[in-house]
Amino acid sequence: MEDLATKRYANGAILQSKDSYSSDDYGDYKIYYPVLGVVVAVYPSDDPNNRSARDDDTNRGSHWEADVRVLNNGIEGSTTLTNVVIPPGGPSGVHNFSQGLPTPATQMLDGSAFVSSGAGIDANKLDGDRVLIQFIGGKYNQPVMTHYMPHPSNRHDPSTSGEFDGGLSQGTPFLYRRNGTAVTVTDEGSIFVDTNEANSKMVGRAGGATRVTEGLGGDLAISLKPTASFSLDFNSAVSSVHEPGLPQTNPPVSDVDPDDRKTAASYLCMDEDNVNLVAQHVLNILSNNADIVIQPATEGRLYLGDQTAEENLVLGQSWKTMMLDLLGQISTLMSALVDHRHSDGLGGTGPALPPEATAIQTLIDVNLKALQDNLDDQLSDFVFTSKESPVIEDGRELETGET
Fold first, then answer.
1. pTM for the model
2. DSSP classification of residue 367
Protein backbone atom coordinates (compact mmCIF):
# COMPACT_ATOMS: atom_id res chain seq x y z
CA MET A 1 0.00 0.00 0.00
CA GLU A 2 1.28 3.44 -0.83
CA ASP A 3 2.32 5.96 1.81
CA LEU A 4 -0.84 7.89 2.60
CA ALA A 5 1.14 10.87 3.87
CA THR A 6 2.09 11.63 0.28
CA LYS A 7 -1.53 11.61 -0.93
CA ARG A 8 -3.83 14.60 -0.94
CA TYR A 9 -7.42 15.38 -1.71
CA ALA A 10 -8.22 17.70 -4.60
CA ASN A 11 -8.19 20.70 -2.24
CA GLY A 12 -4.63 19.89 -1.16
CA ALA A 13 -5.54 18.40 2.24
CA ILE A 14 -3.40 15.43 3.25
CA LEU A 15 -5.22 12.08 3.43
CA GLN A 16 -5.35 10.94 7.04
CA SER A 17 -4.26 7.44 8.02
CA LYS A 18 -7.82 6.57 9.05
CA ASP A 19 -9.06 7.30 5.54
CA SER A 20 -9.30 4.46 3.11
CA TYR A 21 -7.40 4.77 -0.13
CA SER A 22 -7.96 2.97 -3.37
CA SER A 23 -7.09 4.18 -6.85
CA ASP A 24 -10.49 2.93 -7.98
CA ASP A 25 -12.20 5.25 -5.49
CA TYR A 26 -10.54 8.25 -7.14
CA GLY A 27 -10.70 7.21 -10.78
CA ASP A 28 -12.64 10.37 -11.69
CA TYR A 29 -9.62 12.44 -10.63
CA LYS A 30 -7.40 10.95 -13.32
CA ILE A 31 -7.19 13.51 -16.12
CA TYR A 32 -4.97 12.89 -19.11
CA TYR A 33 -6.00 15.86 -21.27
CA PRO A 34 -5.38 19.62 -20.97
CA VAL A 35 -8.00 21.82 -19.32
CA LEU A 36 -8.80 25.42 -20.24
CA GLY A 37 -9.21 27.86 -17.38
CA VAL A 38 -8.99 31.46 -16.24
CA VAL A 39 -6.63 32.50 -13.44
CA VAL A 40 -8.56 33.85 -10.45
CA ALA A 41 -5.80 34.08 -7.81
CA VAL A 42 -2.01 33.84 -7.51
CA TYR A 43 -0.02 33.00 -4.38
CA PRO A 44 3.61 34.09 -3.73
CA SER A 45 6.20 31.56 -2.66
CA ASP A 46 5.72 32.47 1.03
CA ASP A 47 1.92 32.59 1.03
CA PRO A 48 0.18 30.12 3.40
CA ASN A 49 -2.10 29.16 0.50
CA ASN A 50 0.95 28.04 -1.47
CA ARG A 51 1.42 24.28 -1.07
CA SER A 52 5.21 24.46 -1.51
CA ALA A 53 5.35 27.02 1.33
CA ARG A 54 3.21 24.87 3.60
CA ASP A 55 5.55 21.94 3.07
CA ASP A 56 8.60 23.97 4.18
CA ASP A 57 9.61 24.63 7.80
CA THR A 58 10.56 28.23 6.96
CA ASN A 59 7.33 28.83 5.02
CA ARG A 60 9.33 29.61 1.91
CA GLY A 61 8.23 27.72 -1.18
CA SER A 62 10.02 27.03 -4.45
CA HIS A 63 7.49 28.61 -6.79
CA TRP A 64 4.29 30.63 -7.13
CA GLU A 65 0.92 28.90 -7.40
CA ALA A 66 -2.49 29.87 -8.73
CA ASP A 67 -6.16 29.10 -8.50
CA VAL A 68 -7.69 28.48 -11.93
CA ARG A 69 -11.39 28.34 -12.71
CA VAL A 70 -12.06 25.64 -15.29
CA LEU A 71 -14.04 26.68 -18.37
CA ASN A 72 -15.93 23.69 -19.71
CA ASN A 73 -17.19 25.33 -22.86
CA GLY A 74 -14.98 28.41 -22.78
CA ILE A 75 -17.67 30.55 -21.16
CA GLU A 76 -19.27 28.98 -18.12
CA GLY A 77 -17.10 28.62 -15.07
CA SER A 78 -17.35 25.39 -13.14
CA THR A 79 -14.87 23.93 -10.67
CA THR A 80 -11.75 25.71 -9.45
CA LEU A 81 -8.35 24.03 -9.45
CA THR A 82 -6.20 25.03 -6.48
CA ASN A 83 -2.44 25.03 -6.02
CA VAL A 84 -1.75 25.05 -9.76
CA VAL A 85 2.03 25.29 -10.17
CA ILE A 86 3.15 28.32 -12.17
CA PRO A 87 6.25 27.08 -14.02
CA PRO A 88 9.32 29.21 -14.78
CA GLY A 89 9.33 31.19 -17.99
CA GLY A 90 12.59 29.61 -19.11
CA PRO A 91 15.48 27.45 -17.87
CA SER A 92 15.35 27.54 -14.09
CA GLY A 93 17.13 25.70 -11.31
CA VAL A 94 19.62 26.63 -8.60
CA HIS A 95 22.13 28.29 -10.96
CA ASN A 96 19.64 30.04 -13.24
CA PHE A 97 16.16 31.33 -12.62
CA SER A 98 13.28 32.94 -14.49
CA GLN A 99 9.79 33.94 -13.46
CA GLY A 100 6.75 35.13 -15.36
CA LEU A 101 3.46 35.39 -13.53
CA PRO A 102 -0.11 35.41 -14.88
CA THR A 103 -2.61 38.16 -14.14
CA PRO A 104 -5.55 36.97 -12.00
CA ALA A 105 -9.11 38.10 -12.58
CA THR A 106 -10.06 41.18 -10.58
CA GLN A 107 -12.85 42.77 -12.61
CA MET A 108 -15.32 42.44 -15.48
CA LEU A 109 -14.13 44.14 -18.67
CA ASP A 110 -17.59 45.54 -19.39
CA GLY A 111 -17.77 47.23 -15.98
CA SER A 112 -20.43 44.87 -14.61
CA ALA A 113 -20.28 43.53 -11.06
CA PHE A 114 -17.41 41.15 -10.38
CA VAL A 115 -18.42 37.96 -8.58
CA SER A 116 -15.42 36.21 -7.04
CA SER A 117 -17.21 32.86 -6.99
CA GLY A 118 -17.77 33.08 -10.74
CA ALA A 119 -21.44 32.21 -10.43
CA GLY A 120 -23.62 33.50 -13.26
CA ILE A 121 -20.96 35.56 -15.02
CA ASP A 122 -19.57 35.49 -18.55
CA ALA A 123 -15.98 34.28 -18.16
CA ASN A 124 -15.10 35.93 -21.50
CA LYS A 125 -15.46 39.25 -19.70
CA LEU A 126 -13.12 38.37 -16.84
CA ASP A 127 -9.80 40.17 -17.17
CA GLY A 128 -7.77 37.20 -15.85
CA ASP A 129 -5.28 35.39 -18.10
CA ARG A 130 -6.45 32.26 -19.96
CA VAL A 131 -4.25 29.20 -19.38
CA LEU A 132 -4.01 25.51 -20.19
CA ILE A 133 -3.65 23.13 -17.25
CA GLN A 134 -2.24 19.60 -17.38
CA PHE A 135 -1.82 17.07 -14.60
CA ILE A 136 1.34 15.21 -13.62
CA GLY A 137 0.61 11.52 -13.89
CA GLY A 138 -2.99 12.48 -14.62
CA LYS A 139 -3.45 13.32 -10.92
CA TYR A 140 -6.11 15.89 -10.25
CA ASN A 141 -4.21 17.28 -7.26
CA GLN A 142 -0.97 17.84 -9.19
CA PRO A 143 -1.99 20.49 -11.75
CA VAL A 144 0.64 22.47 -13.68
CA MET A 145 0.08 25.52 -15.85
CA THR A 146 1.62 24.65 -19.23
CA HIS A 147 0.54 27.29 -21.76
CA TYR A 148 -1.15 30.65 -22.09
CA MET A 149 -4.16 31.06 -24.39
CA PRO A 150 -5.31 34.26 -26.14
CA HIS A 151 -7.92 36.26 -24.29
CA PRO A 152 -11.07 36.47 -26.42
CA SER A 153 -11.63 40.11 -25.44
CA ASN A 154 -8.22 41.34 -26.61
CA ARG A 155 -8.81 42.40 -30.20
CA HIS A 156 -6.30 45.23 -30.09
CA ASP A 157 -2.81 43.83 -29.55
CA PRO A 158 -2.50 41.01 -32.13
CA SER A 159 -0.70 42.39 -35.21
CA THR A 160 -2.63 42.81 -38.46
CA SER A 161 -1.64 42.23 -42.09
CA GLY A 162 -3.10 45.43 -43.54
CA GLU A 163 -4.77 43.43 -46.31
CA PHE A 164 -8.24 43.94 -44.89
CA ASP A 165 -10.25 46.98 -43.87
CA GLY A 166 -9.43 48.58 -40.56
CA GLY A 167 -6.01 47.03 -40.05
CA LEU A 168 -2.45 48.30 -40.36
CA SER A 169 0.38 46.46 -42.05
CA GLN A 170 2.34 45.44 -38.95
CA GLY A 171 4.23 42.44 -40.27
CA THR A 172 5.06 39.63 -37.87
CA PRO A 173 6.76 41.35 -34.92
CA PHE A 174 7.76 39.86 -31.60
CA LEU A 175 5.82 41.82 -28.97
CA TYR A 176 5.95 41.60 -25.20
CA ARG A 177 4.10 43.94 -22.88
CA ARG A 178 4.20 43.78 -19.10
CA ASN A 179 2.49 46.29 -16.81
CA GLY A 180 2.17 48.65 -19.76
CA THR A 181 5.83 48.59 -20.82
CA ALA A 182 6.19 47.15 -24.33
CA VAL A 183 9.19 45.59 -26.07
CA THR A 184 8.89 45.08 -29.83
CA VAL A 185 11.26 43.43 -32.31
CA THR A 186 10.17 44.21 -35.87
CA ASP A 187 10.53 42.09 -39.00
CA GLU A 188 13.62 44.17 -39.83
CA GLY A 189 15.18 43.36 -36.47
CA SER A 190 14.67 46.83 -34.96
CA ILE A 191 14.07 46.88 -31.21
CA PHE A 192 11.70 49.32 -29.53
CA VAL A 193 11.18 49.72 -25.79
CA ASP A 194 8.13 51.85 -24.97
CA THR A 195 7.35 52.88 -21.37
CA ASN A 196 4.74 55.55 -22.18
CA GLU A 197 2.02 53.35 -20.72
CA ALA A 198 4.09 51.90 -17.87
CA ASN A 199 2.23 51.18 -14.64
CA SER A 200 -1.06 50.94 -16.50
CA LYS A 201 -3.91 48.47 -16.47
CA MET A 202 -7.17 47.85 -18.26
CA VAL A 203 -10.19 49.22 -16.43
CA GLY A 204 -13.57 47.70 -17.21
CA ARG A 205 -16.27 50.12 -18.39
CA ALA A 206 -19.69 49.80 -19.95
CA GLY A 207 -18.41 51.05 -23.32
CA GLY A 208 -15.41 48.73 -23.24
CA ALA A 209 -12.22 48.41 -21.23
CA THR A 210 -9.78 51.33 -21.35
CA ARG A 211 -6.09 51.35 -20.47
CA VAL A 212 -5.41 53.74 -17.58
CA THR A 213 -1.92 54.80 -16.48
CA GLU A 214 -1.39 55.39 -12.77
CA GLY A 215 1.38 57.17 -10.90
CA LEU A 216 5.05 56.70 -11.61
CA GLY A 217 6.92 53.90 -13.36
CA GLY A 218 8.61 53.46 -16.71
CA ASP A 219 12.17 53.98 -15.45
CA LEU A 220 14.98 52.15 -17.21
CA ALA A 221 18.04 51.32 -15.10
CA ILE A 222 21.01 49.09 -15.81
CA SER A 223 23.25 48.09 -12.90
CA LEU A 224 26.70 46.80 -13.86
CA LYS A 225 29.35 45.17 -11.70
CA PRO A 226 32.57 47.21 -11.36
CA THR A 227 34.55 45.06 -13.81
CA ALA A 228 31.90 45.30 -16.55
CA SER A 229 31.56 47.81 -19.36
CA PHE A 230 28.71 49.17 -21.45
CA SER A 231 29.05 50.04 -25.12
CA LEU A 232 27.03 51.17 -28.12
CA ASP A 233 29.00 50.51 -31.29
CA PHE A 234 28.07 51.50 -34.84
CA ASN A 235 31.20 49.92 -36.28
CA SER A 236 31.01 46.69 -38.24
CA ALA A 237 31.02 43.52 -36.16
CA VAL A 238 34.22 41.50 -36.13
CA SER A 239 34.15 37.72 -36.31
CA SER A 240 37.30 36.68 -34.54
CA VAL A 241 38.35 33.60 -32.61
CA HIS A 242 40.35 35.99 -30.42
CA GLU A 243 37.17 37.55 -29.02
CA PRO A 244 35.08 34.63 -27.73
CA GLY A 245 32.95 36.89 -25.55
CA LEU A 246 31.38 38.60 -28.55
CA PRO A 247 28.40 37.25 -30.48
CA GLN A 248 29.80 36.13 -33.84
CA THR A 249 29.37 33.63 -36.63
CA ASN A 250 30.29 30.02 -35.98
CA PRO A 251 32.57 28.98 -37.55
CA PRO A 252 34.31 32.40 -37.78
CA VAL A 253 34.35 34.04 -41.17
CA SER A 254 37.79 35.54 -40.46
CA ASP A 255 40.71 35.23 -38.09
CA VAL A 256 41.68 38.82 -37.38
CA ASP A 257 43.21 40.27 -34.27
CA PRO A 258 41.07 42.39 -31.94
CA ASP A 259 43.25 45.36 -32.96
CA ASP A 260 41.65 45.19 -36.39
CA ARG A 261 38.35 46.40 -34.98
CA LYS A 262 37.45 49.65 -36.71
CA THR A 263 36.46 52.71 -34.69
CA ALA A 264 35.68 55.17 -37.48
CA ALA A 265 31.93 55.17 -36.82
CA SER A 266 30.21 56.60 -33.75
CA TYR A 267 30.98 54.74 -30.56
CA LEU A 268 30.12 54.91 -26.86
CA CYS A 269 31.85 52.84 -24.21
CA MET A 270 31.64 53.16 -20.43
CA ASP A 271 33.40 51.26 -17.69
CA GLU A 272 34.07 51.88 -14.01
CA ASP A 273 36.69 54.58 -14.68
CA ASN A 274 36.09 56.04 -18.15
CA VAL A 275 33.46 57.20 -20.61
CA ASN A 276 34.52 57.30 -24.25
CA LEU A 277 32.22 58.97 -26.76
CA VAL A 278 33.25 59.21 -30.42
CA ALA A 279 31.21 60.80 -33.21
CA GLN A 280 32.13 60.17 -36.83
CA HIS A 281 31.09 63.65 -38.00
CA VAL A 282 29.30 65.96 -35.55
CA LEU A 283 28.68 65.53 -31.83
CA ASN A 284 25.53 67.43 -30.84
CA ILE A 285 24.72 67.95 -27.17
CA LEU A 286 21.45 69.86 -27.09
CA SER A 287 19.28 71.19 -24.29
CA ASN A 288 15.98 72.87 -25.08
CA ASN A 289 15.26 74.59 -21.78
CA ALA A 290 18.20 73.99 -19.45
CA ASP A 291 21.89 74.62 -18.98
CA ILE A 292 24.62 72.21 -20.01
CA VAL A 293 27.26 71.60 -17.35
CA ILE A 294 30.59 69.87 -17.97
CA GLN A 295 32.16 69.53 -14.56
CA PRO A 296 35.49 67.88 -13.73
CA ALA A 297 36.25 66.55 -10.28
CA THR A 298 37.75 68.70 -7.52
CA GLU A 299 41.25 69.79 -8.64
CA GLY A 300 40.46 68.32 -12.04
CA ARG A 301 40.89 70.13 -15.36
CA LEU A 302 38.75 70.57 -18.44
CA TYR A 303 40.75 70.19 -21.65
CA LEU A 304 39.77 71.32 -25.13
CA GLY A 305 41.91 69.17 -27.38
CA ASP A 306 43.84 66.62 -25.35
CA GLN A 307 45.49 66.42 -21.95
CA THR A 308 48.81 67.67 -23.32
CA ALA A 309 47.32 71.14 -23.96
CA GLU A 310 49.19 73.87 -22.04
CA GLU A 311 47.48 77.15 -23.07
CA ASN A 312 45.03 78.60 -20.55
CA LEU A 313 41.61 80.00 -21.37
CA VAL A 314 41.18 83.73 -20.65
CA LEU A 315 38.70 84.56 -17.89
CA GLY A 316 36.33 87.01 -19.55
CA GLN A 317 35.17 89.11 -16.60
CA SER A 318 38.66 89.32 -15.14
CA TRP A 319 39.99 90.35 -18.54
CA LYS A 320 37.25 92.99 -18.90
CA THR A 321 38.06 94.49 -15.49
CA MET A 322 41.74 94.58 -16.35
CA MET A 323 41.12 96.20 -19.74
CA LEU A 324 38.80 98.86 -18.29
CA ASP A 325 41.46 99.75 -15.77
CA LEU A 326 44.20 99.80 -18.44
CA LEU A 327 42.19 101.91 -20.89
CA GLY A 328 41.24 104.28 -18.06
CA GLN A 329 44.89 104.76 -17.19
CA ILE A 330 45.82 105.34 -20.84
CA SER A 331 43.03 107.93 -21.13
CA THR A 332 44.27 109.69 -18.00
CA LEU A 333 47.82 109.67 -19.33
CA MET A 334 46.80 111.10 -22.70
CA SER A 335 44.73 113.84 -21.01
CA ALA A 336 47.76 114.72 -18.92
CA LEU A 337 49.87 114.95 -22.08
CA VAL A 338 47.42 117.45 -23.63
CA ASP A 339 47.52 119.66 -20.52
CA HIS A 340 51.23 119.22 -19.83
CA ARG A 341 53.39 122.35 -19.52
CA HIS A 342 57.13 121.88 -19.56
CA SER A 343 59.16 124.33 -17.46
CA ASP A 344 62.39 125.70 -18.86
CA GLY A 345 64.60 128.75 -18.39
CA LEU A 346 62.57 130.75 -20.92
CA GLY A 347 59.27 130.62 -19.02
CA GLY A 348 58.07 127.13 -19.90
CA THR A 349 55.96 125.74 -22.70
CA GLY A 350 52.20 126.00 -23.13
CA PRO A 351 49.68 123.17 -23.51
CA ALA A 352 49.46 121.21 -26.74
CA LEU A 353 47.88 123.13 -29.59
CA PRO A 354 45.72 122.00 -32.47
CA PRO A 355 45.86 119.89 -34.48
CA GLU A 356 47.88 117.66 -32.10
CA ALA A 357 45.71 118.46 -29.10
CA THR A 358 42.54 117.81 -31.10
CA ALA A 359 43.84 114.47 -32.34
CA ILE A 360 44.79 113.37 -28.84
CA GLN A 361 41.43 114.44 -27.42
CA THR A 362 39.64 112.54 -30.21
CA LEU A 363 41.59 109.41 -29.29
CA ILE A 364 40.44 109.84 -25.69
CA ASP A 365 36.79 110.73 -26.34
CA VAL A 366 36.12 108.44 -29.28
CA ASN A 367 38.57 105.62 -29.71
CA LEU A 368 39.35 104.75 -26.10
CA LYS A 369 35.74 105.39 -25.05
CA ALA A 370 34.53 103.02 -27.80
CA LEU A 371 36.94 100.31 -26.64
CA GLN A 372 35.69 100.68 -23.08
CA ASP A 373 32.03 100.65 -24.08
CA ASN A 374 32.37 97.61 -26.35
CA LEU A 375 34.41 95.24 -24.21
CA ASP A 376 31.27 93.12 -23.62
CA ASP A 377 31.18 92.45 -27.36
CA GLN A 378 34.35 90.43 -26.92
CA LEU A 379 32.80 88.21 -24.24
CA SER A 380 30.68 85.16 -24.98
CA ASP A 381 27.10 85.14 -23.69
CA PHE A 382 27.08 81.36 -24.18
CA VAL A 383 30.22 79.80 -22.66
CA PHE A 384 31.23 80.44 -19.03
CA THR A 385 34.03 79.12 -16.85
CA SER A 386 35.75 79.80 -13.52
CA LYS A 387 39.25 80.24 -12.22
CA GLU A 388 39.12 77.33 -9.78
CA SER A 389 37.64 73.87 -10.32
CA PRO A 390 34.40 73.35 -8.34
CA VAL A 391 34.38 71.51 -5.05
CA ILE A 392 32.59 68.18 -5.57
CA GLU A 393 31.09 66.21 -2.72
CA ASP A 394 29.01 63.05 -3.15
CA GLY A 395 28.88 63.57 -6.89
CA ARG A 396 27.42 67.08 -6.81
CA GLU A 397 28.63 70.67 -6.64
CA LEU A 398 28.25 72.36 -3.26
CA GLU A 399 25.60 75.09 -3.14
CA THR A 400 26.54 78.68 -2.27
CA GLY A 401 27.15 78.99 1.46
CA GLU A 402 27.32 75.23 1.93
CA THR A 403 30.36 73.71 3.66
1. 0.65
2. I
